[in-house]
C-alpha cells in the first residue's frame, strides 16, 4: 500500500506505538492500515460415499483438481462462504455437516478452512470456474493432479478419519516448502 485509504496521502511503513509489526501508517491523518490474512473456505462435498472434485478452469493451478473453495466474502460466515463456493464451482447445493480441517499458510497470508458437506442431489456440472466436475471414490482420488497442498492434506486426513469411523477437526500449518500438493 502506497497511499492512505482514508485521506490519500503517502504512507510510511513503521511500527505503531503498542504494536509489534510494521504497518502502513499515514503521517497526515495517522490512520493505520492493517493487512491481515485472507480466509479460503470450502467443502469436502460427499454424495453416496464419493467425493466431488472440480477441475480448475482458472489460475492458479489451471487444469488441476481441487475441492470447491475460495475467498470468504465480507458479511458471510465461513460455512456460508464454503457453500457459496461449492455452488459457484460445481453448480450444486450442499449442506455443511462439520468443520473438518484448517491450515494456516503464513508465507501467503492465508487460512484454508474445509467443511464436510453433503450434496443434496447429483446435479453438479461444469461452471465458469471449473471445466469439469466429477465424483470420485476415495480410493480413486487423482493425487498427482491435485491443485493445492491444503486440498491434498485435507483429503488424506478425511480418508484416514473415514477408515476410523470418526471425523475429528484437524489444525496444522503449511510451510513454504510444502507448496506442492504433497
Q: Report the total helices.
A: 2
Spatial gap, N to C terminus: 33 Å
Q: Give the SSE string.
A: EEEEEEEHEEEHE
User: What name does the CATH topology of the largest domain carry?
Assistant: Nucleoside Triphosphate Pyrophosphohydrolase
- CATH architecture of the largest domain, please? Alpha-Beta Complex
- Helix coverage percent of residues? 10-25%
CATH superfamily of the largest domain: Nucleoside Triphosphate Pyrophosphohydrolase
Radius of gyration, taken over Cα atoms and rounded to an integer in Å: 19 Å
Q: What's the number of structural domains?
A: 2
- What would you call the structural class? alpha+beta
Strand fraction band? 25-35%
Shape: elongated
**What is the top-level CATH class of the largest domain?**
Alpha Beta
List the helices and strands and how they pair.
Layout: E1 12-14, E2 23-25, E3 32-33, E4 38-47, E5 50-56, E6 65-66, E7 69-71, H1 78-90, E8 94-105, E9 110-119, E10 130-136, H2 149-164, E11 170-173
Parallel strand pairs: 4-9, 8-11
Antiparallel strand pairs: 1-2, 2-3, 4-5, 4-7, 5-6, 5-10, 8-9
Core attributes:
hydrolase activity, ADP-ribose pyrophosphatase, 35% strand, 3-stranded antiparallel beta sheet, 182 residues, Ubiquitin Ligase Nedd4, Chain: W, 8-stranded mixed beta sheet, alpha+beta, 2 domains, Nucleoside Triphosphate Pyrophosphohydrolase, NUDIX_hydrolase-like_dom_sf, single chain
Structure description:
This protein has about 180 residues and is α+β, with helices and mostly antiparallel strands. It folds into two domains: about 35 residues, Ubiquitin Ligase Nedd4, Chain: W, CATH 2.20.70.10; about 140 residues, Nucleoside Triphosphate Pyrophosphohydrolase (Alpha-Beta Complex), CATH 3.90.79.10. Helix content is about 15%, strand content about 35%. The chain contains two helices and eleven strands, in the order βββββββαβββαβ. Strands 4, 5, 6, 7, 8, 9, 10 and 11 form an eight-stranded mixed beta sheet that branches. Strands 1-2-3 form a three-stranded antiparallel beta sheet, with no helix packed on it. Strand 1 and strand 2 form a beta hairpin. The model has no long low-confidence stretch (mean pLDDT about 95).
